[in-house]
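Issue 218. Parser rejects a valid record. Input:
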Amino acid sequence: MMIDYGRFKYALANLDGTQWRLFEKLSNVFISDEYPSLRPLASESGDEGMDAGLFFPSDDSQTALQFSVRKDWAAKVTQTCARLQITHPNTGVLIYASNHNIGPAGNDLKRKVRQKYGIFLDIRDREWFLVQRNASTKVIAEADSFCTLVGDPQLFSTHSIEHRAQALNDLETKAAFVYLGLQWEDDTREKGLTRLCFDALVRSVLRDTNADKRMHRDEIHQQIKKLLPAAHYPTLKGQVDGALGRLAKRYIRHWQKPDEFCLTWAERTRLASRLAEVAALDEALQDQLLQSLVTTVSEMEVELSTDKVQLIEFIRKVLEQVLLTRGEVFADAVAHDKGAFVRFEDVDAIVDRILITSRIPQNLQRSIVVAVIQDILGSKRDEVRKYLKGLADTYTLFAFMRETPDVQSAVVKIFSEGDIWLDTSVILPMFTETLLDDQLRAHTQLMRAAIECGLKLHVTSGVVEEIATHVQRCRSFRRLVEQGVAQGEMPYLLSSYQQAGYDPTNVETWLQTFAGNRSPEDDVAEFLEDTYKIDVVDLEEFASQASDLLRASVSEVWHEVREARDRRREQLGFLPVDPNTKAKLVNHDVENYVGIIVRREKRRERRSAFGYKSWWLTFDRTAFRMNDLLIPRMDDRVPPSPALSPDFMLHYLSVGPVRARLSKRTEESLPLMMNMSVLDAVPNELLVLADDLRKELSDLPPNVVNRKIRDTLEDARMLLGSMGEAGMSGLTADIRQRLFEQARHR
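Output the parser choked on:
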């Protein structure tokens, strides 16, 4: 058996000061190959000013070895050297073993000790023990014993479990969540979700068992029944017995006559290693939360009277409740056939509902909570992003189990193959992501995952026309800006280019990536095919076969929505969209919405909420309200909506029937959630700020300028949000100056 790095590291890092004897024993074994005979120089109460961890080799009076668990290691080394100079003046080498991380921080101390006491200091810190953990059979045995006595009890403890699953309350429920998360990470993609869930529940219930502390089958049934009170008990017993039978072959021991079970020693050790990994990831998340909180309150110039640790715990709880809420929305929709057009709330809306019913720490503003959570959800740290993705998937599975213990039967109702038509609102964000690093391309990663699992992606010619026209509008608007006569709202791609920190005078080079001036629609179609494997498939043939009532009703809704948007534009001082363009846009939406409905009918696709194979992926909020808006016009003859939200698609890819087709790497790269506000207008103040920042930072390399502008605009967005809550508007001169200074020094 080899000693797991994470498990041993956890034991060393969490060693209590009262357990110094265990560390002394561990150190003796680890160093015994170099110094086989050590004689202690001090007792527990101390001897000549030296503690119990000071030794001399029997055959080397010039070398001293000290094993210490003290956190103030520098002070301890200095004290020991001072005493050795008096009691053993011939000492030339001090080997100092510590369970703490010292590393390069000890270099200065080595120099001082050598200069002042004439002693060479050899530090064996935590990393040294980790490197040596599998050096020999006796070292492995001692390290395993050390983990069993020090780290494992803490990993399996009630305290450790209570810190996890902050969106849940009951201890056993939290434990079930933790082990469900481990099972989700460890099992193969092909394993059925019902089996996966019950294997996890059995492990959770048996977590404190061993050969001397076993659990009867009936008690296991009852414990899991408490976790799933709504489940049909005979069915639940069958699922539990099936899990016990599977696990008894390798992971648990079954005493057949008394019908009792316990975890095997090997499985308990494996679980300890996995729990240590989770603890390390959890610590990384806590560090990221603290860093984000400190940055946010600094940018907002807020004084916090409450302890930051308490604030982090509160924000962490809200964060996990956001993940649970979104998982519940998906599970409820699937379990009860509510339809894929179900709306996922934005983060700030969920936070608002949570804060209404929560006791908020003093001075913690809503805007701070939202800003920190949004920052964490968009974290660039792989370990944090991976951990959050695992939490999100586990909360979704947990929500499914609450709805129906037979998770697999619920999930297989969702389509496992299909044709997805993409709206312009989905395509344009993918274009803007070509300006970003790969790990930040959420929409692109979603499409790549869809392709990998076998879905076919299409656009209509109308969408291609909209995209090509948008690119041309960007060119025209930029020319008007250069002439100083630009009016109205800046086109999305152009504003995105500027927000990303790029020089707007160079935007034409970027736009040429998507479309030239001669045949822009052909260029767009070719780019979509070559880059994303999205082909052009029209739906007008199907849409033209729809009933007059359906087509007219859908068209009427979109005309009304477009008219309402124009009225808002005019109130803001912008010109309305010209009638011909408006009519084209409505026709394109009608073709997608109605065309897919008719295609389903003509192809006799499965008539259930999620069994259809033809869908329309869109961010358009009207598409998700269409069913309700059609009822007054069509009474009860409204067909199921073909609209599919990117958030639903995200959950579908993570836990749906196509999950087995995704590689682990692709699954881990999926974003946590999609931004339904991605196409909202950008405040003009931010665009002006981007231009001013570029001038202010003109002495820096272009790539550095781009990064600083992008990060500073993110800060400015948060500031605008918090100021709006306070009844203020706009970026004051003082705030702009502070943003400039932060950009220069960030």
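Fixed in the parser; the record now loads. Residues 157-413 form one domain.
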